[in-house]
Sequence to fold (983 residues):
Amino acid sequence: MDRNKDAPASDVPLLEVADLKVHLNTPRGLLKAVDGVSFRIARGETLGLVGESGSGKSMLVRSLMGISPSIAKISGSVKLDGDELVGIPRKQARSIWGNRIAMVFQDPMTSLNPVVRIERQLTEPMREHMEISRADAKVRAVDLLKQVGIPEPEKRAKQYPHQLSGGMRQRVTIAMALACDPDLLIADEATTALDVTVQRQILDLLEEIQEDRGMGMILVSHDLGVVAGRTDEIAVMYAGRMVEHSPTDDLFVHRRHRYTEALLAAVPRLDVPKTMRPSPIAGSPPDLVTFKGGCAFAARCDTAADVCHTERPDLRANGNSLHLFACHHPVGEDEALDVPVTVGAGASTSTETKEVSA
Amino acid sequence: MWRLLGRKVLHLIPVLFLVTFATTAMPEMMKLGDSSKTPVAAKLTPDMTPADVKALEKEYGYDKPLFERYTDWVGDAVTGDLGKSIATDQPVMESIKERYPATLELAVTALLIALLVAVPLGVWSAAKAGRLPDKIMGGMSSALLAVPPFISSVLLVYLFAAPGTLGQVFPNTGWAKFSEDPGGNIEYLILPAIVLALAEIPQFLRLLRSDMLGTLQEDYILTARSKGLSTPYVLFRHALRPSSFSLITISGLTLGRLIGGTVIVEVYFSIPGLGQSIVGAIQANNDVPVVQGTVVVIAVGYVLLNALVDIGYMLIDPRVRAR
Amino acid sequence: MSLVETENSLGLTESGVESPGEAAAEIKAKKKRPGILWYLSLGWIGIVILMVLFADLLPAEYDKPIGESHLAPFQSWPEFLGTDYLGRSTLTRIALGARTSLIVATVPVALGILIGGLLGLASAYFRGTVEAIVDIVADALLAFPPLLLLLMLASAFKPPSVWNITAGLAVLAVPGFYRLTKANAIAQSKREYVVVARAMGAKPGRIMFRELMPNTVAVILSYAVIVMAVMIVAEGSLSFLGVGVPDPEPSWGGMVFKEKDALEDAPGQVFIPCAVLFLTVFSLNVIGDRLRAKFDVRESNL
Fold:
């Protein structure tokens, strides 16, 4: 893991997303669900993708897996180990989905097929992507179940999903995602539907697996608390765009975007008195079909000025920092100089910002 | 599950009672309209006096009151005796045994043809929902739904079994027993079976399409697609089975309905099945025991088949099975 | 957990991911625009009604020969449909056949709605024993394959006439309407306004007719259109078997029955009644389907 982290920026990253757009042709008009997002993930690195419902985070990861709705138009660039994924034939893309990138879904109650035995759901990606015999695949399936901490894996393999508890099922979906040893694992709100105690176990399991295998991982959540201690970097999405992107440690200390701040204020904390309730964010995100310009968060922002309603802020960094944000009046503005990113500033994350504006 | 089963069986009893009782009451129903009618009309000759008719009625047991006749009939029926034809004196059970294989073969073949056509088309239609193939199939099934078997029989015979049009591909009418002439049996079977299948295809297709559309919205379809599986695999392996429960139920019911609904094609294609014997018996001066016996056998079979379908339903859906 | 409040207040689904509800709404919106098929169907049903009304004004009589037998269609005017095996006017017989079809389509359906509807409302209101008994009778009727039940009734009420067949078809129609009304009324009776009415001490009759019935009518009527098509087919099938409306009384199914042996010599005379029946059934199906989509009648209610 460390080896990967120290690798120079010139090395090909595991995943490089540049100016990715997912536009949906809805009956009401063009919906820009994801509108120009860029980021990269190195091997062994975990990215937390945070935003509320409708922020486009699920759309973003689904477009990576080829499961966006049929009305979606995807443009931009997604490179996995340098191989472009956008625009390649479906047959070729299929050899990547479930094989080199795999996904764990939100609700284990609905994401497993109720009438297909667990064994078969585990072995089918192997049979599709690996040269493996039916018998070997079955052995591997049981082994995977054991790895994700399922007791009596031989027995469980023969069962149907409804015979397992929610936490067990999520372990099964994780095993399913690991079936072909993916390089990148995407966990889309993988714990949201689970009990709090089970949530923790599943998150620990994901972290452990990621470290053991040195995979890249995207942890999608609406909950900053979930991604806080388990990610290397955090990207905050709002209304289809990335509004803040920073190494995890730095984000919590020096959050810059007003939306991120509001998100943090909404996290329930145990270390403050009960009277200080978490404060929900007032208002709702803009309608992405009719939204015209300016900062998408302006309408809900306490500090919004005129410029916020007219001009869209681009992602920029504070000097050479890896901490990017898109806000006209960031938190702690007076503390530092704001230098809009115009040229590559050396850091990998800034080069990618250049691509955005290009 | 067992309790569910028990309730089903319990419900069967009154239904079976009503079905058998209603058929026993046929002579009473006849007399309701015109009291001069008699269930033994087939044996009447012009020179018979009313006393002769009474004697004849007595010979066949129609002088007894309805309830006594019913208990007698049930007593006989459980020993496999359904009375004998008034016109020919042939035991009804014998005629049923002789004729049911043709009807059953016809119904099963029709059902298989209908499923073989409707399942892939229904899956395809759902996969292409709202697009051209779906629209074409939707239009075709609407049209087919308005073609009753008696029209498609005439049309298909005109097209495929009459000289002059597309040529005589199939024999016009007739039947050969499979045990005696398998090739001939299949030749005679195809056209009537297609006629019956055509009437069922649109319902199957529509049902499967709408259930598939529901299933394709499910999260586990996204999961399957995210595994990089091919579209046909996802459709047939992951979506078809959970979508096919109502289709299976309907297929079972359809088989029952077909056994009773082969009447038209049996008569038109001169197939010696159960339906033909019922129509024949009605035309031959109301041969009551034949109509009664045959109808009861079909109706009871239908009721039992429905119950079996329910059980089959439980077996196929692991979620129901668990209960 | 942090965004639970905001999420609830938004009630949004993940933007762009089409939920089943959305898809259904879209399909519904599509159905709202009547297509060309809808107008053609209405047009054809209009023609059938004109035939029913003005059949007597046609020049030829239905039971008298007007010329040679088996004149091909589209050869002469005004008898543009030719003649049947007895040299009778096919045009007149088709027009009068429409009258037969209209009777067998409307009367049994009306009776079915009346009897089935009343029983359904009663079952839905009283539940318990009443429901159990009616259910069993309905199940018993449905246990007969429909055509067989019809044949049995036809055999009991021999010789066949339009009214005998109509009575038989009515028996066939009742269980379907019973089940539909009951299912609907039960669904309705769980709604608040009925519970309120009951709590306020409204009498059963009032609840049944004032609260339950009006909300069920639209659903029943859209189903009725489909059943009308089924009835026309059933009469046609009976006539095709030779146990339907007897000659010389004209009926579309009977015309096919009488001409089917002349299929090779005079295909036109076989296919004209077939086509007329097909168009009528198709139109009724189109109209019924649209009404059903509008009033949201689900097959599962039946």
In short: Chain C touches chain A at residues 1-3, 5-7, 9-10, 12-18, 26, 29 (CB under 8 Å). The mean pLDDT of chain C is 79. The first helix of chain C runs from residue 4 to 10. The radius of gyration of chain C is 24 Å.
